[in-house]
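hi! just following up on the protien thing from before. the input was this:
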Amino acid sequence: MKIREIKLMFVPVVLSAALSFGGCAGFLEETSESQRVMNHFYKTTEELEAGLLGVYATAKILYEGAALGIANVGTDEVYAINASSNMGVADRYLYPASHNTVTQWYQRHFKVIQTANIIINYAPRVPDIAEADMNRIIGEAKVIRAWCYFRLVQTFGRVPVELKETTDISFRIRRNPIGEVYDAILDDLRFAAGEGVLPESITTGHVNRWVAKGLLAKVCLTLGTSMNRDPQPVPEYDELEYDTGELFGECRTLCDEIIASEKYSLCQTYGDIFLLSKKNGPESMWELQYSSAPGLGSNWSKQFGVQQTGNANAATISCLVGSSSFAPPPSFYRYFKLGDVRRTWSIADYRVRYDTSTGNPLDLAYLKGESVSDVTDETFNIDTDDPDSLKRSMISIPGGRLRVSKYRWGYGSDPSMYWAETLSFESTNCPNNVIVLRYADILLMRIEADMLCNQGTAGSESLKIMNEQLLARARGWNAAAGRFYTVDEMKEQALENARKWLDAATAAHESNPTSETEAELAEARGNYAAKEARCLVDYTAETLTYDELLTQRACELCFEFHRWFDLCRTGRLHTLAPARIVNPNSIPVINFNFEVNYLMPIPTYELDLAEDKTLFYQNYGY
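and the predicted 3d structure came back as:
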């Protein structure tokens, strides 16, 4: 095959244009994404800086199109509403090697890697570039390259590792062993996290030394837990020679260094993290930047959003309604404990109701009270503690109307009223940033690594972080007192209705002690006890189990593209994803194959280009 070479001359651009710079224009249609040819010339530091912005901009393609579903759906946290769509196929692990979602995920990561390689390789050739600038730019590009390879190795296992700009394509490419891929990732991140490479200050949209350390901590944690899986779904991990104890120790140390830097802090109000008016806040470590300026936004966040009733076009105009391609299983709703404001912010148990004649929003129509069955008079109640009633609600039509409300599109001062607010930009060009890494993740990784270093038990510092920072915020801010709600204050609110029932039943039985009032009192007591047991109280070393910690990760980081990776690395994907509870009439169950589905298939397109199938081959089972 004759290989043509594309030579691209850099055109200086102003900053606003650089933010949308694709960085990889003019790719060959017949070229493997993992083996691209490109010559790119930078003559000044300013041009190289603009090229680096192009790497950041190119990274946003990982959250667009069919690739958005990969590592998002197919978990106990998210499912695809349309079971027959590309997302629905991915949700149930039915994708063939030729499937668009798989191809996009694979090729787009290598596209970003190639843009990073160009910057890394050309930076030393820029005339008169200062060494500090050169190292910083190379360091940023290496962080992005490592991040992409990190996502690829988790989803495909062995992948080609190309760390230099490709000048001559050979289709005798090989899939590097998993250990070699991780070596390359660790090398890049340790370089970037080294002294004097990246700044320790915060520059919006750019990675810094703390981000490099945070991603390095995540790689160490992921590699170690992946090696510890038992049973092991990917046998090659059993052959790796890394010391898991050292990996967990390094993760904890890196997290402690980030914490000690005092560069970041938890937002006071959980929902503020995701408001358009408060992007890049004190908790943010690295966000991919979007704007509502023409062509600089995206519709990725609109794939979530609340459901409407009465206006089929609401997603195009509403600051709360989305197209709802993704939704939370009703069973995930119950992962949250009572009194947890993260649930009320992130999961909508209501729809936005519109006037069918005017198309104007009227109010929020809550699902509680909607009919569960046409046969009985039972109504939807996902907060019940009766297991049979709960199951019926979960698999009901109202249960299928739960939606993700984490991402919103208003600018008003009261987010609870965004249902009445109209978009100020095109619904296809939303300015919601993708949060790649935030401080809460660092705190959770620190706790997890500490537990793994101590036979599953959290130390006093980890318990303090969990109880005094993460759970305190999860209970909400008491504005009147100028502090977070205490456990007792949270219980007073969360148990109000249960307490009223108990008090009424107690009074009724005391005034008229009969078998009927005694039975009512017993039922009220049982209800109160069950609800109290589900309240968000502080953990002890005994109650903070590893599974509890992973549930807290899910509650804190839900719908932020973490859950699939967490379930995969801890070996829980094959049990928890199929166990989710949704309406079986609309969403078929996941038939997960333990030996196959922990990795995705290598795309057919890439396999067809490879000349030697012994070097570049398909994953087992596909």
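The first strand starts at residue 7 and ends at 9.
Residues 333 and 491 are 19 Å apart (CA to CA).
cheers
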